[in-house]
Amino acid sequence: MKKLSVLFGAVMMVVSVGMAKAQKIATLDLVSVLNAMPEKKKADTDLKAFLDAKESEIKKKTDVMQTKYALYTKEAPTKSEAENKARQEEMQKLQTEAQQMSERAQKDLAEKEKLAYAPIEKKVMDAVNKVAKANSYEYVMDVNSTGLIYKGGPDATPAVKKELGLQ
Predict the structure, then answer these.
(1) What's the predicted TM-score (pTM) here?
(2) pLDDT tens string 21-78
(3) I need a surface site. Which of 22, 27, 30, 131 has the fewest CB within 10 A?
(4) What is the pLDDT of residues 109-123, one digit of tens each?
(5) Closest Cα partner for 152 from 35, 13, 34, 23?
(6) In which element (H, E) is residue 139 found?
(7) What is the dihedral of CA 115, 121, 126, 131, to 10 degrees?
(8) Which CATH number is associated with domain 24-164?
(9) Residue 88 has what DSSP assignment?
(10) CB-based contacts of 159: which residues, under 8 Å, 6+ apart?
């Protein structure tokens, strides 16, 4: 009986190892693929231009605010209490507007990123799926992921780049 259980254990180990070797796992350098795509480069350029424009608008607003603040601070001793209070309220309003403008810019940027990157992500995922099916990969892991424990299998990066028509 004891020999039978030892034999059964050995058979299970051999079967387990055989099943593990049957799985085809590949790695993919997703960052490399994305950085090689002209669509991604164009989206990055467009998003940077959008961000720069928004930052310029916000800077203009804050420059006006700082100029008024300096003027109001300088003139405060010569103005009445009511005028100083009105000016203080105006400064708070300008500060709130600048903050809202900044929050709106961040929200707009996030929406633009989502719209710009969605077709790129779909194109890459379609290519990954096609390459994985063509090469019978059961798993394709991103080499940049912290979850990657072992990188010894085939690298799917060149095949995905070829599928996308990149270098």
Answers:
(1) 0.70
(2) 557 888 888 899 999 999 999 999 999 999 999 999 999 999 999 999 999 899 989 9
(3) 22
(4) 999 999 999 999 999
(5) 23
(6) strand 139-142
(7) 170
(8) 3.30.910.20
(9) H
(10) 131, 134, 135
